[in-house]
Structure formats: C-alpha cells, structure tokens
Amino acid sequence: MLPRSCCEAGSKTDSLIGLTDDQWVLIEHFFPNKQVSPQGGRPERDNRACLEGVLWVLVTGARWKDLPPEFPSYPTCWWRFKQWTESGAFLKAWNVLIQLMIDLKQIDLSSLLGDGTFAPSKKGVRM
Questions:
Q1: How far is CA 52 from the centre of its chain?
Q2: Are 77 and 67 in contact (CB under 8 A)?
Q3: I need a labelling partner for 110 at 20 to 30 A (CA). Which of 41, 42, 101, 127 fits?
Q4: How far is CA 84 from CA 9, 70, 119, in A?
Q5: Measured between alpha carbons, how far is 16 from 107 in angstroms, rounded to an integer?
Q6: Bridge-partner residues for 12, per DSSP?
Q7: Alpha-carbon span 29 to 40, nearest angstrom
Q8: What is the pLDDT of residues 46-95, one digit of tens each?
C-alpha cells in the first residue's frame, strides 16, 4: 500500500485538477523529458505542465483551444496526449493513480454506471 500522503491535500497544487507533488513522483517515469540534441533546437515543454493541461481539458470537457494560458499551448498538450496515449504511457500512469486511490479507499467501485449517451449504436447493426 502506498503512503497516505500521496493523495492528501496540501501537497502542491491549488487546483482541483492538478497533480500533487507526491502523485507526480509516482508517475513521472512514464513521461521522460527528451534531451535537446547536440545540434541545438528548442527544449521541450515540461511534461508535468503538459499533463496538467491534458487533465484540465479532460476534467472540464472544454475544447483544446480553450486551454488557459497558465498551461503550455493547446497544440503542445494535444500532441503530447496523442503520443502518450499511443505509447501506452497515459494509461499506465492512470492505472497507478487509480490503484492508489482504490488502496486509500478514496474510490468506491461497488457501484458503477455506464452511460451510452455519447456512444450511439450503428444504424442497421443487430445486437
């Protein structure tokens, strides 16, 4: 079982959406920063800032282009989310955090709801 402090308030963020420092420590290895090449180039935006931008969009349901200015640009956050989703990094990190919350009894999985409102059935397909 992971330490209780991993999901308690007061561990960095003022936002209800952002990650605490303890949560970030648990998942940061899934999002390694790329080094600037010897030929130069622009350094990448911070992965934690991009992840928090992604979480903001996912939690609020807002459009990517409505991402507030305190996060990296929306194309950067979207591109990073796409890369992390395709590589499996996002799902691995998500699973670690969900398991932590289950272990701390902060999620009750005894009753779940599946809402098909946004997943209409295909016309002409028999079930």
A1: 6
A2: yes
A3: 127
A4: 27, 21, 24
A5: 16
A6: none
A7: 24
A8: 999 999 999 999 999 999 999 999 999 999 999 999 999 999 999 999 99
Supply 54's token pair.
């992604």
Residue 9 to residues 2, 6, 12, 52: CA-CA distances in angstroms?
16, 9, 8, 17
Supply the pTM of this predicted model: 0.70
Q: Give the model's confidence band at 121: pLDDT under 50 very low, under 70 low, under 90 confident, else very high.
A: low
The pair of three-digit structure tokens given for residue 82, joined into one six-digit string: 């796409």
**Of 97, 91, 22, 82, whose CA–CA distance to 50 is shortest?**
82
Rg (the chain; Cα; Å): 18
Strand partners, 37: 40
| Geometric angle at alpha carbon 30, from 83 and 88, rounded to 5° | 45
Q: What is the mean pLDDT of the chain?
A: 81
From residue 109, how far is each of 8, 17, 93, 106, 112 by CA, in Å? Answer: 20, 21, 19, 10, 6
The dihedral built from the CA positions of residue 82, 63, 108 and 113, taken in this order, carries a sign that is negative
Coil, strand or helix at 63: coil
Residue 67 zone, left/alpha/beta (φ > 0; ψ -120 to 50; rest): beta
